[in-house]
Amino acid sequence: MSEITKTLKPPYYAVIFANQLSGEDEASYQHMAARMDELAACQPGFLGADSTRGADGFGITVSYWRDLAAITAWKQQGEHLQAQQSGKHKWYKNYAVHIAKVERAYDL
Amino acid sequence: MSEITKTLKPPYYAVIFANQLSGEDEASYQHMAARMDELAACQPGFLGADSTRGADGFGITVSYWRDLAAITAWKQQGEHLQAQQSGKHKWYKNYAVHIAKVERAYDL
After folding, report:
1. CB 3.0 to 4.6 Å from B91: which of A59, B29, B68, B85, for a disulfide?
2. pTM, two decimal places
């Protein structure tokens, strides 16, 4: 695995995406997920991301962003909009999104 | 698996704990982790938590709290303090903690 994203000096933003895969069309899910990682990393204001998924299909991805404007721009990116639609209707059984302002951060 | 923690009406707080297990003394780690879940759920101001870990030992736990005071009280809880020390010196290869104020939240 890659290293955990290092903490930065706050304030910045976190998008916490917790999701349960439906198991439907998993090959296209994997392809989309890799593509979204690639695209997010190129977005202005992207600071890093950590992601993991258990054998039960429950996953958490946390991405870090400079500000809310960067998060909004990513949410509205064309390919990402399509992925969100397919996620809602096909890949995810359910999910929760939290957008939160990082006030403190430390690491080991 | 249990259901994803439902989003609430902001503001509230998230503690994002990303960690890589060292693999050392895994039995005692599992025991402690179960105990901490139990204790956290009894803390005043605890709103819920989501947690997952991949086969590579990389895990993310996000716990949700009413306010910063509730997070501080949990951080200083006696058994939790001991667990933090053992985590630092034994169970975790590395970790990052982000404490963030939830400003928006939605779910499917």
Report:
1. B29
2. 0.96
